[in-house]
């Protein structure tokens, strides 16, 4: 592992804690120069603590790595531009951006405020766009100057939005689905500049955002891999930002030691009526006869076992109780 990213500069957002911190430490240990971005805010985006990013930088430097701290907000257009400029000023170039920053405000739809919706979308979706936009502008300028080399963007989504949109996460699920869609668009657009764009989707990883989930604190035996530790995500990110990686336009789920390719929305069963409009009674009869998946069945299958719940009705009861509580 050591040295495989030597000479490459990587900007990681939300790198002060959890998955972002694990990524920053791993990248630096692999030889990369790392810009550690984190304003040190609370889970809901309020507050701020400059020491959060600085602490990770100190860890990297103590291990012989190269890093600088940044405390700007990815949701701020000017801050996003300054992050790119900081990377270039500190290390001479920028080779990759890892868009990891996120906040959460979990509430049922009828209780979610406009500000709570906007704030989560701003950090996760707009923040991913802002960093990618300014990085792409910088890389386009480098190509225009005759300098073309491998560049990479790694976005971060979640199963909430891609596979199992969770109740209470209207804002977070929507933002993550948007990040996955953005990944594909940017992979197509930026190939001409030598830029690869991929997306990771961590699942059941222990962070500030997931600590309240039942089972997250489950211990493992000494010497065994902890599948919920944030470090399980880092090797994939290091590969995706490495110069020899050929992948682009991929959305990859990560759960413990498992990595799975996602294909997004795909076409399912189909009914046809050529040459005429459907009538409402025809649709009522035809669509009702199709095998359509209930979203509660999907959630119970995907998450029930991990939460110690093994029945669809029990799962729906738990979700509804949570919604009524928030």
From TrEMBL:
Q: Does Amino-acid biosynthesis appear among the keywords? A: no
- What are the alphabetically sorted keywords of the record? Oxidoreductase
For this protein, the record's InterPro entries field holds: KR_dom, NAD(P)-bd_dom_sf, Peroxisomal_Beta-Oxidation, SDR_fam
Q: Which residues form the Ketoreductase domain?
A: 8-203
- Tell me if Oxidoreductase is a UniProt keyword of this record: yes
GO terms assigned for molecular function: oxidoreductase activity
Q: Which family does it belong to?
A: Belongs to the short-chain dehydrogenases/reductases (SDR) family.
Report the protein name in the record: Putative short-chain dehydrogenase/reductase
Q: Which organism is it from?
A: Nocardia ninae NBRC 108245
